[in-house]
């Protein structure tokens, strides 16, 4: 009787194909949860780093000194700090070569955009996997359900009198595949939508910082004060 079988027993007694489907869905669920936990920590750290860097950047300190401190630390920079480092490095290098204001600012902006693209790629990493799991898991589970029900009714071919008790275990194991597909898909879809929105917000902050730093460097290139003074004036 189906009522005498636990879900674990139904899984163990399922057909080989249905067991493969269940194993794939279980693996997909484990992968999606590992991505969710890692991405949650990564985005939280990215927001905290951006807050901390903006606080230092807009404090009115000398940007040349800030760049030297970052450069001499020889650590791998991320986020807004990486954008600043690449932009200011290119600005300083081109200025030492005597490049005119237009190409000077264009070069600094190009360096910031490259860093921005790298940071965006890092933040968006693995989100496509969540989207894939969320969109395909229900169909994989449905395939296992259809296969299990088909096997359940196929077993009635040589039976003179069919009863519900004979097909109930097969149908039950088939429905477990659907449930596992939903269990893998629903958290992945929710997490993808949530994290995609957070990534967009962080990328907007980065893009805004590129514009602000470009404005500061433009003032500095035109001879209107030091980078520190230009930053204080822009923030005011």
Strand and helix map with partners:
Elements: H1 7-12, H2 16-57, H3 63-73, H4 79-96, H5 101-124, H6 127-154, H7 164-221, H8 227-235
Brief sketch in words of this structure:
With 236 residues, the chain is mostly helical. Helices cover 83% and strands 0% of the residues. The longest helix has 58 residues, at 164-221.
Give the SSE string: HHHHHHHH
Structural class: mainly alpha
- N-to-C span: 76 Å
Approximate strand percentage: under 5%
Give the domain tally.
1
Largest sheet: none
What is the residue-averaged pLDDT?
85
**What level of helicity do the residues show?**
over 70%
How many helical elements?
8
Outline, from the CA principal axes? rod-shaped
Pfam families: MotA_ExbB
Family: Belongs to the ExbB/TolQ family.
Domain MotA/TolQ/ExbB proton channel: 79-207
Keywords: Cell cycle, Cell division, Cell inner membrane, Cell membrane, Membrane, Transmembrane, Transmembrane helix
């Amino acid at each position: 009787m189906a009522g005498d079988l636990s879900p674990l027993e139904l899984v163990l007694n399922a057909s080989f194909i249905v067991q493969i489907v269940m194993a794939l869905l279980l693996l997909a669920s484990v992968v999606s949860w590992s991505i969710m936990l890692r991405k949650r920590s990564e985005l939280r750290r990215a927001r905290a780093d951006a807050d901390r860097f903006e606080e230092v950047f807009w404090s009115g300190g000398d940007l040349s000194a800030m760049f030297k401190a970052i450069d001499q630390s020889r650590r791998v920079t991320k986020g807004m700090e990486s954008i600043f480092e690449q932009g200011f490095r290119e600005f300083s290098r081109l200025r030492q070569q005597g490049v005119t204001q237009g190409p000077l600012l264009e070069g600094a902006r190009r360096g910031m955009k490259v860093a921005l693209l790298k940071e965006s790629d890092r933040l968006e990493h693995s989100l496509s996997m969540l989207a894939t799991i969320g969109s395909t898991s229900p169909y994989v589970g449905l395939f296992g359900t259809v296969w299990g029900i088909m096997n359940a009714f196929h077993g009635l071919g040589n039976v003179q009198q069919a009863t519900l008790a004979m097909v109930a275990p097969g149908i039950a194991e088939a429905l477990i595949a659907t449930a596992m597909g939903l269990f893998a898909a629903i958290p992945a879809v929710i997490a993808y939508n949530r994290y995609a929105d957070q990534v967009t917000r962080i990328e907007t902050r980065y893009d805004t910082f590129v514009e602000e730093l470009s404005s500061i460097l433009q003032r500095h290139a035109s001879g209107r004060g030091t980078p520190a003074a230009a930053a204080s004036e822009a923030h005011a």
